[in-house]
Design brief:
By secondary structure, the protein is mainly alpha-helical. About 80% of the residues lie in helices and about 0% in strands.
Length: about 220
């Protein structure tokens, strides 16, 4: 009986952790990714001066306030989502995840692969930008980002890392809807999957334009 109770408690714990993992991928992580692309870095598409205006506006907030908000709403959820994501990767059945949906099977595998790539890219991105701001008082200006983007290796890493992060988020919306029972029917799941792939194209297309603008 004790063994059954332990198994039930373990199953409940996994249920809660998987739901939290799924939820944090959408809010706040996914929401921040949308804002990071469309409401922050997209300023550079209007020219360096416009991006510098955004940098100046962010600089008006006390660093301690920014750090607290980032830890609470970005880095904390990211760390949980990423580390538990490695647990999910270890538990994944990559050989035959979805018997009757070949596209879904490929997306299932790509979701986990992209998550691993995105985890290491985001870690490097945070260290090379935000940590430099807090530790060395380095302003994340257009010139700073331009210096990163004209480096071939760093630019390539950005291209691949952003691709992985955007795919992981947009495809994750599809899996989120399945996990939370929003799309129980196969037809609804395929409609949401198509919409998510369209969002992926729009997001990565915008991100690519941003990266190229920082290289100009």
């Amino acid at each position: 009986m004790a063994g059954s109770d332990q198994q039930l408690a373990r199953a409940r714990q996994q249920f809660v952790l998987r739901r939290l993992h799924s939820l944090t991928g959408i809010v706040p992580i996914g929401a921040y990714l949308l804002a990071h692309i469309f409401l922050e870095n997209s300023f550079v598409l209007g020219g360096p001066a416009r991006f510098e205006g955004l940098v100046g506006a962010i600089a008006t907030f006390p660093p301690a306030f920014l750090l607290g908000m980032e830890i609470l709403f970005i880095w904390g959820p990211l760390l949980f989502h990423g580390l538990y994501g490695f647990v999910r990767v270890r538990q994944a059945e990559l050989d035959n995840p979805l018997r009757n949906d070949h596209v879904g099977a490929y997306l299932y595998s790509l979701q986990r692969i992209s998550g691993v790539i995105a985890f290491f890219f985001i870690g490097w991105h945070v260290w090379s930008t935000r940590m430099q701001y807090y530790f060395n008082h380095t302003e994340i200006t257009y010139a700073f980002m331009h210096g990163i983007m004209i480096d071939p290796l760093k630019f390539t890493f950005f291209m691949v890392g952003v691709l992985a992060a955007v795919f992981h988020f947009t495809n994750g919306i599809w899996t989120f809807c399945i996990t939370w029972g929003i799309t129980p029917a196969v037809r609804a799941q395929r409609a949401v999957r198509a919409a998510c792939m369209l969002l992926f194209v729009v997001m990565y297309g915008t991100a690519f334009a941003i990266l190229m603008a920082f290289r100009a």
